[in-house]
Design goal:
Helix content: 25-40%
Largest sheet: 7 strands, antiparallel
Oligomer: single chain
Strand order of the largest sheet: 8-7-3-4-6-5-9
Structural class: alpha+beta
Distance between the termini: 85 Å
Length: 201
């Protein structure tokens, strides 16, 4: 039985149209993935895998359940959980919070992604700080912590959180010079902060 040539052409046109729409969709989706995950810093590119998803929210809420809205307790609980995950170099791109927890290892990229994602789900203002071959997190706390130095960014106080040092505390010492800081990044907006003033005090 022969199929009418007119219908065959019509069907072929519809299939071609759907394919073109699909290709356009994939190109646009890829653009936004690159825009939201890849950060150019000087000569290098950082790939963030931050997540504000249900898994990360449930995890962070469980970890701070005994803190009774005490921000120092909450941040330290999230930091303790992150630093207890064994450090192991990840040869591929950084992984999501869920992957790091399930696989139970991570390097500075992985663990910083996990930590900052948990902080974000709990409403904390936190940023990545990129230095040569390393990344750490800074968090803004309302109350000053006695005997701990803070990194002041444009006059606002932030405490360093070192995700790779087991048992580290809020206010980890700054071990880099100011000119080694390659960027302070908001990974949720995928933008570098404009730094007018930076001091450690």
């Amino acid at each position: 039985m022969l199929i009418d040539n007119k219908y065959l052409k019509y069907f072929s046109f519809i299939l071609s149209f759907i394919f073109i729409i699909y290709v356009i969709y994939m190109i646009i989706t890829s653009f936004f993935i690159v825009k939201n995950q890849f950060i150019d810093i000087g000569d290098s590119t950082y790939v963030n895998q931050v997540r504000v998803d249900e898994y990360t929210k449930r995890l962070s809420t469980y970890l701070i359940k005994d803190c009774k809205n005490n921000e120092k307790c909450e941040v330290q609980a999230l930091l303790d959980f992150t630093t207890a995950i064994p450090y192991k170099i990840n040869e591929s791109i950084a992984r999501s919070s869920k992957q790091v927890v399930k696989q139970n290892y991570g390097d500075c990229d992985d663990k910083s992604n996990l930590l900052i994602s948990m902080l974000k789900t709990q409403g904390y203002e936190a940023y990545f700080v990129l230095v040569p071959k390393h990344i750490f997190v800074i968090v803004n706390l309302k109350d000053k912590i006695a005997n701990k130095k803070a990194l002041y960014v444009n006059g606002k106080r932030f405490y360093i959180l070192e995700s790779t040092a087991t048992g580290s505390k809020i206010g980890f010492p700054l071990r880099y010079k100011y000119d080694e800081i390659q960027g302070i990044i908001d990974p949720f907006k995928n933008k570098s902060l404009v730094i007018n003033e930076l001091k450690f005090n």
